[in-house]
């Protein structure tokens, strides 16, 4: 019996997403979730990336895995708001005055058993996005706009790698999208575009899987589920690169050869499959 029929459609979608991941993990990948055993070292070795990017709120018993380019700054702001309204002092024990602390910090301060206890008993949340709109957004924000010296240097490094000649220091980096895709398809790594599968959703299941494409509905239902709808609102974030626009996506991917797209698909096919996105078969196959 549904408690609130307003969210019936969202509840059904969540059930489909959660069951889809469980089916893909167990039937196709043959991966069983880890047993919740505080002495099982696989929680450290297998879940390293997840522990590093999963933020904890002990008051509301929440675990939020932050995926860059899926509203990550908004989630951090939200966790700060919840911390300000909460009572738990463990954040300060962990050396965090703003309430942002990760499972990695929990492990360092309290040990692996404290991590496993939270993974077992807290409500785990992740928001994902179409892999290629996320990748395009990262390219436009980090390597075209180049918001800081780090990404200017990274852009220069990618140009040097794909063009086989360095860019003169006097010239502003002009990394082309097809060059960026070539770099990524060959394994070029950054937290803003690396496959989300490194969060290991098969090893410890998520309770809630949001999609950026249905963000408003998903957040409304999530806030209803965890009982914070009357306490906070999701913070506004104004960093849109327009990458979610289908025409923009097609325009950029029209520059990509079939051979390069096939290679890129090989790297991201598991993200497409496990989070139930359609894998494009050619550079116009976006719907």
Question: In words, what does this structure look like?
Answer:
The protein is α/β, with parallel strands linked by helices and 287 residues long. The protein has 13 helices and four strands. A hairpin with a 4-residue loop joins strand 1 and strand 2 (62-65). The radius of gyration is 20 Å and the shape is globular. The two termini are 35 Å apart.
Short overview:
This protein is of the alpha/beta class. Helix content is 49%, strand content 6%.
**Total helix count?**
13
Compute the gyration radius: what is it? 20 Å
Beta-strand fraction estimate:
5-15%
Could you tell me the number of beta strands?
A: 4
- Give the integer mean of the pLDDT values: 91
Helix share, percent: 40-55%
- Helix/strand-derived category reads alpha/beta
Strand order of the largest sheet: 1-2-3-4
Order of helices and strands: HHHEEHHHHEHHHEHHH
What gross morphology would you assign? globular
Give the low-pLDDT segments.
Answer: none
Distance between the termini: 35 Å
Q: Main β-sheet: number of strands, strand sense, barrel status?
A: 4 strands, mixed
Keywords:
single chain; 287 residues; alpha/beta; four-stranded mixed β-sheet; 49% helix
SSE inventory with pairings:
Blueprint: H1 8-28, H2 42-45, H3 48-53, E1 54-57, E2 62-65, H4 72-85, H5 90-93, H6 103-110, H7 112-121, E3 123-128, H8 131-144, H9 149-163, H10 177-185, E4 208-211, H11 215-226, H12 246-253, H13 258-274
Parallel strand pairs: 2-3, 3-4
Antiparallel strand pairs: 1-2
Helix pairs in contact: 6-7, 9-10, 10-13
């Amino acid at each position: 019996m549904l408690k609130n029929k307003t969210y019936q459609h969202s509840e059904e979608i969540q059930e489909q997403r959660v069951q889809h991941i469980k089916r893909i993990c167990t039937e196709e990948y043959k991966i069983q979730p880890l047993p919740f055993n505080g002495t099982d070292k696989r929680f450290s070795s297998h879940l390293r990336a997840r522990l590093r990017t999963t933020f904890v709120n002990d008051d509301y018993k929440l675990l939020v895995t932050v995926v860059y380019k899926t509203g990550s700054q908004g989630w951090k702001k939200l966790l700060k708001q919840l911390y300000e309204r909460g009572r738990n002092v463990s954040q300060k024990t962990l050396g965090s005055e703003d309430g942002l602390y990760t499972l990695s910090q929990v492990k360092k301060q309290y040990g692996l058993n404290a991590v496993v206890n939270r993974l077992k008993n807290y409500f785990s949340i992740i928001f994902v996005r179409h892999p290629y709109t996320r990748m395009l957004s990262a390219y436009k924000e980090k390597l075209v706009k180049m918001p800081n010296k780090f990404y200017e240097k990274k852009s220069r490094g990618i140009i040097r790698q794909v063009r086989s000649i360095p860019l003169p220091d006097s010239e502003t980096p002009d990394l082309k999208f097809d060059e960026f895709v070539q770099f990524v398809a060959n394994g070029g790594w950054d937290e803003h575009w690396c496959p989300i599968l490194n969060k290991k959703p098969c090893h410890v299941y998520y309770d809630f899987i949001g999609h950026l494409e249905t963000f408003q509905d998903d957040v409304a239902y999530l806030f209803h589920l965890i009982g914070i709808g009357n306490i906070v609102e999701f913070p506004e974030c104004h960093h849109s690169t327009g990458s979610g626009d289908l025409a923009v996506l097609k325009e950029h991917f029209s520059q990509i050869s079939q051979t390069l797209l096939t290679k890129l698909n090989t790297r991201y096919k598991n993200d497409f499959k496990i989070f139930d996105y359609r894998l494009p078969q050619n550079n116009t196959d976006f719907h």
